[in-house]
Amino acid sequence: MFRPKIPTMPTPTSLGTPPAVAEPTAVIPNVETPLAVPTTPTPSRPSVQLTPGTALALVGGGTAVVLVLGAVLVSLLLAVAITGASVAVCAVVLRSLLASDAKRR
What is the CA radius of gyration of the chain? Predict the structure, then answer.
């Protein structure tokens, strides 16, 4: 039941077709074509031209992004600092409670 069945190789019934003879082919040398005059490619899209209004909008947008990212990072740093301080206060309180309990015994 657990032994795999290995299929048997079928025996050929006839000789089949004779092998084909490979005939050599003639090599034709490649004829070089004359090079065309290079043309200057036309740009697929026009170049962007900044007007004073769009430059001012880009500067304002970049400033807004920097200010928002700075506020988020500062608030995250402040949250980590407050959490660390509160954990330190809890550790000091627990230490004093355990020390006073050990003195009473």
Answer: 42
Pick from 49, 46, 70, 50: nearest CA to 59: 50
Q: pLDDT tens across 21-74, in order?
A: 777 777 777 777 666 667 776 667 777 788 889 999 999 999 999 999 999 999
CA distance 89 to 81: 12
51-55 own/partner pairs: CB under 8 Å, 24+ apart = none
Tokens, residue 50: 């900044």
Q: Which residue type occupies 53?
A: G
Q: Is 92 helix (H, G, I), strand (E, B) or coil?
A: helix
Cα–Cα distance, 54 to 48 (Å, whole number): 11
